[in-house]
């Protein structure tokens, strides 16, 4: 994939580089759990620029994550919120660009969560707006599921307040 000038887009470069990163981690760590933990700890977002004065705190979280996915991966996840308490929701990706160049996981790496970096990025972004959350994969296309689904559970109920974040 390249643009009209024959150059690789930043999204494609990130996806290719990410694949090399996972391959290197698999060489360095024998256990998939160690690779998963390493990927989860890597946070790529360093600043959040956001000003959503018209939305509730929870709505801002949804918007923040959707905007971040669009900016960094070129896709917008849908949001599913079936929780009665309002502290759980899922981001659903029909297409996951991180796996564009991955056909399948090797049999010896069956428990590898290849895209676990996304969990760390999401958790880190939420922490930047003072929301503690557990983030994990509920479905994964690389493991035969129809979609990629990332579950997010707030560890404490977010207050319904307005949030303004600047750098």
TrEMBL record:
Principal localisation: endoplasmic reticulum
One GO BP: Golgi vesicle transport
InterPro entries tied to this protein: Bet3, NO_sig/Golgi_transp_ligand-bd, TRAPP_component
Pfam families hit by this protein: TRAPP (PF04051)
Record bears the keyword Transport: yes
Cellular localization per UniProt: Endoplasmic reticulum; Golgi apparatus, cis-Golgi network
Record key words, sorted: Endoplasmic reticulum, ER-Golgi transport, Golgi apparatus, Transport
Superkingdom to which the source organism belongs: Eukaryota
Any one Gene Ontology cellular component term annotated for this protein: endoplasmic reticulum
Subunit comment: Homodimer.
Family the entry assigns: Belongs to the TRAPP small subunits family. BET3 subfamily.
Biological function: May play a role in vesicular transport from endoplasmic reticulum to Golgi.
Identification of the protein by name: Trafficking protein particle complex subunit
């Amino acid at each position: 994939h390249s643009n009209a000038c024959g150059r690789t887009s930043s999204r494609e470069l990130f996806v290719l580089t990410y694949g090399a990163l996972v391959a290197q981690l698999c060489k360095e760590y024998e256990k998939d759990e160690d690779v998963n933990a390493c990927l989860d700890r890597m946070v790529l977002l360093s600043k959040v620029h956001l000003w959503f004065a018209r939305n509730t705190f929870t709505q801002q979280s949804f918007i923040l994550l959707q905007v971040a996915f669009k900016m960094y991966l070129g896709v917008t996840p849908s949001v599913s919120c079936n929780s009665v308490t309002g502290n759980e929701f899922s981001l659903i990706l029909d297409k996951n660009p991180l796996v564009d160049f991955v056909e399948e996981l090797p049999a010896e790496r069956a428990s590898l969560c290849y895209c676990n970096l996304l969990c760390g990025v999401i958790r880190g972004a939420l922490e930047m707006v003072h929301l503690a959350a557990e983030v994990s994969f509920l479905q994964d296309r690389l493991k035969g599921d129809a979609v990629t689904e990332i579950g997010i559970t707030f560890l404490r109920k977010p207050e319904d307040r307005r949030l303004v974040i600047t750098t």
